Amino acid sequence: MPEYKVRSRFFAPPPEFDGCFTSFYHLDLTVEVGGTICDHLQPEWAGIRFMAGSRPLAQLGETSVERPRFAASGPSALPTYFEIGSTRLWGVGFMPLGWCRFIDVEAKILANQTCDGERHPAFAKFAPLADILCDPEIDDQAQFEAICDTMRGLMQPTRNDEKIRRVHRALVDENLSSVSEFAKEAGLSTRSLERICSRYFGFAPKLLMRRQRFMRSLTTFMLREGSKWTDAMDEHYHYQAQFTREFQTFMGMSPSAYASKEHPILTAFVEARARIWGPPAQTLDKPA
């Protein structure tokens, strides 16, 4: 692994966007001249990323992109493998309410997919931001304001806001243990819960619950240096073999294989996010 340095900065979206975005974040990655680093992004909500400098090679599920300046992805329950060199990156994460207000495609259709945002019809509306966010001569504050202005112009009124918020609030409850309990906490029938989850969250309720449980475990492990997987496992896992199977499902490798690899960007980002923003991963953010 070449020498590298990662610096993250998080910007709180204005109150008018409450519940729409995980955060607006800026990341500076410096890698020794000619070098690249690789990592695996964990499962997350949908997002758009703009690069000024090196552009990534990335793969998510059966989809891949090769060096776009504007990369986009739907919600994921799989890892995103990427390789990149020195760059300045802006990222915007869309919560389910944000998907409802900004994206005109059902989330399940774009789940576990990555693409060149400038070429994909669902994300092309954000492409004008690339000229601003990919220009290293424009300062961070001006770029942040450009993101806010663009989102103000694109946000659409919706009728399902409160249902989405209720589902999201129920989903991040660490005590949730069954789909029927999930539906009850959200104040919906099981069938209505399934429709809302498919349309705006990207996955069936049971898979979303499994992803939450897994992400709580993964981020706990990453934030406790020198910890063991057994210490990080969520209390809803009944035995280690179950956790190992889930790890293979969500990260495409075993826990031991993951622990043996370097995670130069993700580890630094998770630690900075937890220290500055609160929750260490966007899937653990509360809806408002």
From TrEMBL:
SMART domains the UniProt entry points to: HTH_ARAC
Domain HTH araC/xylS-type: 162-261
Cross-referenced InterPro entries: HTH_AraC
Domain of life per record: Bacteria
Coiled coil location: none
Pfam families in the record: HTH_18
Record GO terms (molecular function): DNA-binding transcription factor activity; sequence-specific DNA binding
Designated name of the protein: Helix-turn-helix domain-containing protein
Organism: Altererythrobacter rubellus
Organism lineage string: Bacteria, Pseudomonadati, Pseudomonadota, Alphaproteobacteria, Sphingomonadales
